[in-house]
Amino acid sequence: METPLREPTFLILIALAGEPMHGYGLIAEVARLSDGRVSLRPGTLYGALDRLVDAGLVGVDHEEIVDGRLRRYYRLTEPGGELLAGETERMRRNVKAATTRLRAAKVAPHPSRRFA
User: Fold this and answer.
1) How far apart are CA 58 and CA 91, in angstroms?
2) Which structural domains are found in the chain, ordered by start?
3) Chain center to CA of 64
4) Computed from CA positions of residues 61, 81, 8, 3, in that sequence, does the dihedral angle turn out positive or negative?
5) pTM (predicted TM-score)
6) What is the pLDDT of residues 46-58, one digit of tens each?
7) Coil vs helix vs strand at 80
């Protein structure tokens, strides 16, 4: 899988880092993690999950039948966790570099955002 990851993919991996989740749970968790900025449609989510499963970054944890419908739960695999950790560190370094430059230039942060 290519890095840097697209934001929706990154957020899916973050959501699965906590516990196995099914599709609707992932859609809701990605929306929560992004403060509503990223809204996944089912087709987009399941396409991303298929790619992540094919890449070995996400696996099927278990399945159950709820109200006559199959509910599949996905989990983060060890390689997925390693990729997520690497992307997180890459982003942390970029934020640190940007923060250092902005402070040196005395650029004030937007009032709704804080620097890390």
Assistant:
1) 21
2) 7-103 (1.10.10.10)
3) 24
4) negative
5) 0.86
6) 999 999 999 999 9
7) helix
